[in-house]
Design a protein that fits this description.
The complex is a heterodimer. Chain A contains eleven helices and no strands. By secondary structure, chain A is mainly α. By secondary structure, chain B is of the alpha+beta class. In chain B, strand 1 and strand 2 form a beta hairpin. The radius of gyration of chain B is 19 Å and the shape is flat. Classes of the chains: A mainly alpha, B alpha+beta. At the A-B interface, helix 2 and helix 6 of A face strand 2 and helix 1 of B.
Chain lengths: ~300, ~100
Amino acid sequence: MADAYESLTDHEDDARWAYGTGFSDPLAGVDTTVPSGIDHEDLAAYCLMLGDDALIMSHRLQQWVTRAPETEDELAIANIALDLLGQARLLLSRAAFVSGSGDEDSLAYLRPASQFRNVNLAARADADFAHLVARLLMFSSWRLALFDRLTGAADPVLSAIAAKGVKELTYHRDYAAQWVLRLGDGTEISRGRMRAAVGDLLGGSLVDELFAVHEVEERLAGVAVSPGGVKEEVLSVWGQVMRAATLAEGVGTTAPAGGRPPPGPPPPPPGGGGHDCAGGAFARAGSAFPRAGWA
Amino acid sequence: MINHEWPLFEVFVRAKRGLNHVHVGSLRAADHEMALHHARDLYTRRNEGVSIWVVRSDQVASSSAEDKQAFFEPSGDKVYRHPTYYTIPGSVPHI
């Protein structure tokens, strides 16, 4: 007989625990066999591309641990890094399974830098906190648009990974957008730093690379999402936040409005030293061997 | 001198549908919106919550230690106010 008290609380876990215990496996019940008609090599390569984006972005975020401006934000950044590491683990595992060789660890730790497939935006070293949140906004809204469509992918594992990722990325975007608004529409110093960050990120070829269609993505119709197809949506999200943050005009300049330099020490140059303590290897992994150059 | 410290907020988390919000700790944030974000990241990352309240700590009125005798001790000998003469079913949770 149903207990009257049981109905007061959720059923899925033991009522003795006041806090949640019901963790779920995102791949529970998912058929892991590769559907027929999908090229194994291409699918593995695609999973590697998506996985490396998350792995490298996660690493860059982890570099902020012990360096964040407030302990609360440090936790937030570490949480986001962990979410992305979780996505990377699933995707690298899928790549290893589909290709039939290695595992997530061998892919994460034992590949030479030249074999990483991440976009350069994920590897860009952060000059300061403004640069970090601007980069996170761009990265998470781009990835969210891809994952949103990927939930309908013909590979059930990719689809399940995307379904889990969408919720995480929505929060990442929310967190980043909140900070871009605060800093962009904040003080003279915060505004100057935010402008410099956005200028650095939009100035080069980082954005073009996000929306360039790779040949693997072309061949995997029905599985892969064409990044060209999400461009309009992503640019519209960025534009909305930038306008609200009063950053829309003057993007690309590195100094705050007005000729006088801001009080206090000048911000470090974008892409330069700053907080970056282990930039060497990853910077090379990203920039010297971009995804677009992969044959 | 500018005070660079963000104000303190108290955080209350409701662990499950049907339970009360329970005080779990405090944090610093610039405003309520940021406090909710931080509370989510600090206090619900192990699946602890379904709802969060944040309240600025300086908005909380509290009883003082000097009032202890008049506030709390009069109830000390009123044993009949406790449901100790009932047998509580073993399956009643969260007592």
